[in-house]
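Standup notes
- HV: blocked on the assembly model, inputs below
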Amino acid sequence: MGKVDLHVHTTASDGLFSPVGVVKLAEEAGLKGIAITDHDTVEGIEEARAEGKKRGIEVVPGVEISTMWQGKEIHMLGYHMDVHDSRLLKILKKQQEARHQRNLKIIDRLNELGIPVTYEEVIAKKKGNARKNPGRPHIAEVLIDKGVVKTMDEAFDQYLGKDGKAYAVVERISPFEAIECIHQSGGAAVIAHPGLYEQDDLIPLLVEKGLDGIEMNHPDHPADQKRHYEELADQLGVLKTAGSDFHGERNGSMYHAPLGTCTTDISVIKDLKKQRLYL
Ligand code: AMP
Ligand code: ZN
Ligand code: FE
Ligand code: FE
């Protein structure tokens, strides 16, 4: 028995707490375990696992891969992968390069709109290893600093989100390729926050490809959506997971939710592991 939160970001991507910091927070929140699921990187995991050992908190190695399907961004969570697997690391490196190119495109567009943002200003906002893996939230912080927008939501609505004036896309792997990559490195694949995509027809196709679970409980899923994805997971015979998508507080507001808001039983960690053992 015990509660675990299976969707947590750190300073290895766009979270505001270090890998050690999130483990400390998990202990304070009374959690028995967390999964570190940074965007397209596994860099924070070793540090978090070492801290977890000290504090008796189970830290699951995870990742959240940004994929693209029919023009929509779909996030695929991976759990229990071998974080030293060379194929996994190669794909994540390509994904990081894609995000970097995308950032440069966004900055170009902002400049074209008469908003003078530089790459140096963006990485100055990155906590932890500044040069590695900055994302759109860091660009948003620069826009707030410059008084272009007042809030993170405004930055995404007006400039950085899908309908924003400076939005840019680059090629990403498909969710099917992400499943393959996660499986090849020994992990289980779970579709993140499906309620955000309005793309339920994709889910059975992913299950055919070997999808292991659905993130049923997420802060952006209202109660009826939670029920819906719970039923869908049962119907498709895949696991149900939960996570807060914790990033920390940025510019005074918490995107998604505090650590420990969306949790599931610790047994789900084992269930995710079992998925791969019998292949
Ligand atoms: P990227 O991975 O660089 O494409 O950036 C996407 C990240 O932006 C995701 O991790 C989201 O958590 C974050 N994000 C999206 N919309 C918002 C928002 N309105 N406020 C804060 N963060 C956001
Ligand atoms: Zn994020
Ligand atoms: Fe996500
Ligand atoms: Fe996330």
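- HV (later): unblocked. The CA atoms of residues 6 and 243 lie 5 Å apart. The two ends are 27 Å apart (CA to CA).
- Next: hand off to the docking folks.
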